[in-house]
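Structure, all two chains, one model.
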Amino acid sequence: MMERVGEFQVEKLLLQAIFERSWEAMIIVDGQNHLVAVNPSASQLFGSSTEALIGKSIFDFFPYVLNWAEGQNIAEVTIQHQNGTTQTVEYSQVEEILPNYTLLILRDVTNLKRAVAEELHLQHQRIELFSEVTLKIRQSLQLKEILQTAVTEVQRILKADRVLIYQVLENGTGRLISEAVLPDYSPILGMEFPEEVFPEEYRELYAGGRVQAISDVHSQDPGLSECLIEFMDVWMVKAKLVVPILQNIKSKTAKHQAVRLWGLLIAHQCETTREWTDFELELMQQLADQIGIALSQGELLENLEELVAERTANLQQEINERLEVEAALRRSEEQLRLIANGLPVLIAYVDKDRHYRFNNEAYQTWLGLSPNKIYGCHLQEVHGQEEYKKVEKYIETVLSGKQVTYENDTTFQDGCIHSVNITYIPHIHEQENGEVKGFFALTSDISDRKAIERMKDEFISVVSHELRTPLTSIHSSLKILATGKLGNLSSKGQRMLNIADEQTERLVRLVNNVLDLQSIQSGKITMNKKACKAMELMIEATQAMQMMAQEHGVKLFAESVNFVVWADRDYIIQTLTNLLSNAIKFSPPKSCVWLSATMETLENQNIKQQINSYVTFAVKDWGQGIPQNQLENIFERFQQVDSSDSRKKGGTGLGLTICRQIIKEHGGNIWVTSTCGVGSTFYFTLPTVISILEQ
Amino acid sequence: MKDKCILLIDDEETIQEVVQVGIEIEAGWDVAIASSGAEGIEVAQAQKPDAILLDIMMPEMDGISTLSQLKANIKTQSIPVILLTAKTQAADKKQFQNVEIMGIITKPFNSMTLASRIAKILQWELE
């Protein structure tokens, strides 16, 4: 019994000791919820002495009724402190610790709660901070600006002494490209590093996502390379935090994306060594990720910008070129307009529907037609039906693609009738199957030319008469004297008379030739063309020249032919006699002069004529020949092979020019072939009657 | 054929003279002279020559007007007329298409062969 009493006593003491010394607040309440026992910790919790608390209801402190019934014996409650403050407590209860008595164990968790709340708040703040920095980074599209924002923000948030971005270059070297540093420390922005500082194995580690938080650069743990430690010392760096900036790169071959180490985000602590917190590490990592994203975007943007810049440059160039072309066109157009307006001709462009599309100023000054008013008007509307009918056939010709020139009389705004020469030039669109788009009309005033021509004709007519009359008298007088019927002269006198007679004849020929040529060239002569037998022309010409041939001891032969040509008999005989006369003059005595004719067709010749067949006449001599370089010249006026020829041979220097003019009027050609020392052959062509009928 | 009489109507005295002398020497014909168209018409009416040599270009009344008056006058209309012209005028033959002439002789001509040419045109026979 004594033993039992002793055990009880020990137990009671033990419990008493626990009750009194426990850190936990312990309260025993009775069935009426009155406090019956309070330990010192509870007394401290409620802020009252044990004596003061005994007998008080538990609900004086707890704001709500403890739910004993549900057996929820652990809960958090807020109790009202004696001094008015509230405490957050955890409690547990042991019901019926003694019959009708309950033990309440309370622990003050106010500080713990506060710490958790503070931690949450801090976390929230960090999230906000991170969002803010991310937002700032994303606000810019410029990589340089993004990087600068990142280092500035990291430096600010981490309160690091220096924050850097180190870019790893292709060849393994690197460069510091962004920096935020406190003013106490020297900036190291732009510094470049050899590959040894950051060797391949390190780069690979970082590419794999390694983060280095070094609280003390001199400690053995991080295992920094010696040269890097040297750098750290130079910059007075004591602790550093390094996170990789990784960039997603699109592999051209693989479909998935690859990751490459673009650079490092580095925070330096220079003042002291520093233990880096997880938060700091996380922040750095997240920012490095953001930089990585920005890099990819930036690169895309850069590519896009490059493309845009390139396209813009191209466009600008195109625009500049176009502007230059336009300016050149405007200049050219202006020059053309000035030229068109300055020329003393009417210049117009007419479209294929026969509406004016351009008229120069001369339309106003000559005809009183304002280019602006007649623009777009039909030709008939502008010039009237009668005038339009007169020129319609020429318009049809030009619109069929053929250039046409004609002369017309036009009444100018001064009321005078002017002779005009009009040329229509078709505007043919080469790219559209030679379609005629319209035509240019050029009209020049030839009134002055016509007047001069009339004056010249009158002058020549008068001169011809005035020259011929004395020539006739001299010529006839000499001929009469030469007969001797008026008395005989001495032999010397007779010789002088012969000279005067010969030279008068030559003068007569010269005057005749000059007048012939003028008449033919002026177009005043209309060739009276008829069907002529070639043989008859040849015989008549040879007969006419027979006397002269005999005088020179030259034989004339005419080949027998049977062609009919379309010719003015008199003029062709004149041509033939002229050629025969030349041939006789330049042939040595006892030689022959051949006159022949052949019918030829166009296919065999190079001569371009519109007729299908023609007769070629040939006069062949065995004279001295003509040098090759003079074969063309001899048909020009006064272009004898030897200038002394005309005097020696009594020529005028106009004979061949007249021949060429006559043949041209017949639509034929004249030419010569010659071999020096062998002889020459003069050819000319005349259309056949058949070819004329075919036309 | 020595009895032929030719009337030359030309205002140029030297022409009158060389034609007169030339024809007389060549053919022995008489040559009457008139210095203007009006005078020519008078002489033609009075002397009735066998042929008339008529110059085209004359002052006051030109050859063509003279010709039309000769042809209008019953007394002179049957006399054959040969025109004397400058070569340029002769070349433009159109202007003589509607006049009644026997021929054209262009200046300058040789008066010593003039009678032969007249005879040829008028188909006279020279001795």
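The CA atoms of residues 521 and 661 of chain A lie 7 Å apart.
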